Amino acid sequence: MGGETKPVMPAAHFPRLAERPVGKQISSIYYDRLRQFTSTGQYESHNLMAKMYEGRASGSDWVKLSVYSPPNLARPTFDEATSHEFRDTHVGEAFGPSWSTHWFKIKLTVPAELRDKELLEFHWDTHSEGMLWTEDGVPIHGLTGNGERTEWILPDEYRDGEAHTFYIEMACNGMFGNGDGGTIQPPDPNRYFQLTEADVVAVNTEARALYIDFWIVGDAAREFPHDSSEAHEALQICLSIMDTFIAGGGSNKTIKECREIARKYTGNVDSAKVYDGDKEALVTAIGHCHIDTCWLWPWAETKRKVARSWSNQCDLMERYPELNFCCSQAQQYKWLKMYYPAVFDRVKSKVKQGTFQPIGGSWVEHDTNMPGGESLVRQFVYGQRFFEGHFGQRCTTFWLPDTFGYSSQLPQLCRLAGMTRFFTQKLSWNNINNFPHTTFNWVALDGSQVICHMAPSETYTASAHFGDVKRSVTQHKSMDQDATSLLVFGKGDGGGGPTWEHLEKLRRCRGISDNVGLLPRVKMGDTVDDFFARLEKKAEAGTKFVTWFGELYFELHRGTYTTQANNKRNNRKSEFLLHDIEYLATLATIKDESYRYPKKELDFMWEAVLLCQFHDCLPGSAIEMCYDDSDKLYKEVFKTGEKLLADALDALGFDRDMSSNNPTVAVNTLPWQREEALLAPGMRPGVFKDGHGLMEWQHPCAQNLEVATIEETSGGDYVLSNDQFKVTVSDGVITSLYDYEADREVIPKGGKAAQLVLFDDKPLFWQAWDVEVYHLESRTELPVSKSFIKDRGPYRVSVVTETQISENSWVRTTISLAASVTSGKRRTAAPSYVELESEVEWRESMKFLKVEFPVDVRNTEASYETQFGVVRRPTHYNTSWDMAKFEVCCHKWADLSEHGYGVSVLNDSKYGFATAGNMMRLSLLRAPKAPDAHADMGRHSVRYAIMPHQGGLDHRTVRAARAFNSPLKLRKHPEPHAVAPLLAALKVTGAPALVLDTVKRGEDDEDVATGETMPVKGGRCIVARVYESLGGKARGRLEWGPIPVKKAYVCNLLEDEGEKVEVNGEGIAIELRPFEVKSFKLVL
Ligand SMILES: [Zn+2]
């Protein structure tokens, strides 16, 4: 049986005889040949590159140039600059030095032979950045230099044969500053930039399009698997294009034919229509421009970078309707509004159209390791309020593509600030372990989660290469759950954003996906929010995204917890200052109706502190100029802050100076009682005890104050003791720390606590950023050369030790023990501690200074304070993940505890720490030479303490560390008893792990709000923020004493009212999850 089989006849024309030998293509040679078509060099005048332009006009007949060079590296405004005389100049002249500005006046006439050409551009290259301004002072186009973004499309009205005038503001820096002999090297202050091109150019648009066709089809040939038919086809298409071009002599007609050949592979890619059609696209491409708020250039340059970059994007959107562009950092928008209102309005109109998308919800793209909890809160408060106030929308995606690791409470804070999504990619830089997910749920210490996506292309500055699109799937690690991904493209770090080339390349990639397949389909026109919304929908429909609990520890840049110590110290100090001002100013508004809550000044201070938390500023990875800037700004912050503090204390009735006969009191701004012996300069020794809010001075004799004693033994050792500890200092280090009550030695046999150690510190590349694991091998103990007694008691005893590090560097450390005021109830009160204060003269090169505390405590995990909580990290090197954490970030304390006993190390300004086995090590100073050649050189002062404690880690450490950073403020007050109830009014009772962290007035209150960003809402309230600090469910009461609170609500970080809470007497009952942050609005 069988059907009718039709015989297949041989093709009639298939030749019988082989005409000539035909060889198999030698693959490597034919691949290499592709380069000939578009490369510069020996074939440039014969290949496609020779056909890119149809005409060019240069010289003063067509482009007449004059220049004004402002003195003293000034960056004048347009009006100021153009009011000066301009002198003639010409192509070939060089301008400088580094960081100077030069204003060019350009009179341009299009010659007759170019007027009818399809596309006319002005090409300008000074190998530095620049901004093009219209004659009447509107900035319209940013220039990058060095052959990149050097073109400006001439408006059609320029084709009239008349001379047209415009200006270029030239900045004497490259996109990445002025690094001397390498990008991250310190700037060369004396760089000059030559003007090499100022031409009118007619572009051969088809040749330009063919260039991109050939690039992308060539990439398909190279990057598709070589065993795929798609790769072979791409190669043949490219070879055919080259052969056709050669055969036709590269004529315009031939170029059109070549494009036809390319279309066989790409389809028609000459418009945004390529994205029409509803086939499923796995890759959502989004334009982006990462502008480091400071890095290898100062803030002043960033302001200009923002205007350059964003005006170009607005322009690009008009020519490429598929472009959606997102940009973060409210600070940059604010600068744009202040200095470039015309560009800001242009951005605003694009935001309205939906193509320009503010994202991130934070003030800057900040570091997340070191800012305090409330700083993280305010990044969102100031960011979201700016975006809402100016664009009518809050962000839903937290955006930190470049920040150096992500602390564990961020998901909780995001959720409390209206954001459910998080984007980054930085963990792809890990140099030890490969982070295992790209799309997952990231879970905070309290259990809150956000959906996190890390772009599989592993970049936030993709050049929209074929390979970026391909890697969006090949490097996707979460495809079991979902295969979609974001492709974030556009020049970045120094600004820039997408270029027309990126957009042309992506059109071709999409064309290939639709026409040939194999390449993941890329779509444009969606927002980041659209992308995340689809993931959330999927989760709703049952997709179980993988979870990651706790911090996203970044396995690189561990030196950033220590570099630029002064900046970090300023951060810590300003955070505490801001806390105290807000707390006291809030109380002052209750006491004194005429007192004005200093919202405007607080906004200035917060915005400054938040700015300095930018991810190259606070971590210490910027150039010296940036730290000159931040030093100046912090100085303003402290000056303003001291005044605000004094004003608030005035309003509360305190005396301005200490000379009156009024009673001496200590102001305690912490929400719990303190008991401290205080030796104020020029005062009788006093004890401040049992006080909450206001603590009265009491004569030590009236107290059961155990004195501290010191003696020098015959062997030259010093023994310091109070009623809790006996401390032996031998050869300048602590060789014994005996806890009387626990009857326990804290230092292991042979151990040396407070030992200064020096490490050789030469990371693989990123000096200021990295400390590499091998630095540990170079540990050298620094011997103490001299020690002597400084304080002999009875309230404080101390020994001074002197250590010479090298010829130019030394450390002088004061080891002290204070009299204990907690006699008789040690278990409940703050334990005593051994305090150390080191003054360091630091003149080293590529060295790392640390101080060690070996302790007789054993645990496989140590605890470190993080924002609103505790992170536990291994003390061993079992796995590569454990070992990667050889240097970690802590806030005010680190703790190593075993069952029943432990030791905390407190600090007043440090963030780097390591616990290896039973060795606790506080990182003090580094000495990187790039990108700041003088980082950390000079004098430093740091306080730290070793605090042994019976029992495990608990609220005593949390409170002691806070008090250690918040010394009591001594003042005089005529009637302390009258103001004491108000100062003690706000507190949390119940579980001691509950911390009343922040007290402030409502952002939108009628007597507080400035109305500048957001409308004044009216009403008056106090916002109180509480968190659970140790990781257990906690109940208590938030109390307000005599403050006339009418109603209470739970609110989020943005102070939106949530559920009402029943007021019960002068307070409310509260209950918090482990590590929960909860804010309350107390309506007055
Ligand atoms: Zn960055």
Widest beta sheet: strand line-up:
34-35-36-37-46-43-42-39-40
Q: Please name the fourth-level CATH homologous superfamily of the largest domain.
A: Golgi alpha-mannosidase II, domain 4
Total beta-strand segments: 55
Termini distance? Answer: 97 Å
Main sheet summary:
9 strands, antiparallel
Which of globular, elongated, flat, extended, rod-shaped describes the shape? elongated
Number of domains: 6
Bound molecules: zinc ion
Strand content: 25-35%
CATH topology of the largest domain: Beta-galactosidase, Chain A, domain 5
- Indicate the low-confidence ranges by residue numbers: none
Fraction of helical residues: 10-25%
* Name of the top-level CATH class of the largest domain: Mainly Beta
What would the average pLDDT be, to the nearest integer? 95
CATH architecture of the largest domain: Distorted Sandwich
Domain Glycoside hydrolase family 38 central: 555-634
Protein name: Alpha-mannosidase
Catalytic activity: Hydrolysis of terminal, non-reducing alpha-D-mannose residues in alpha-D-mannosides
Family: Belongs to the glycosyl hydrolase 38 family.
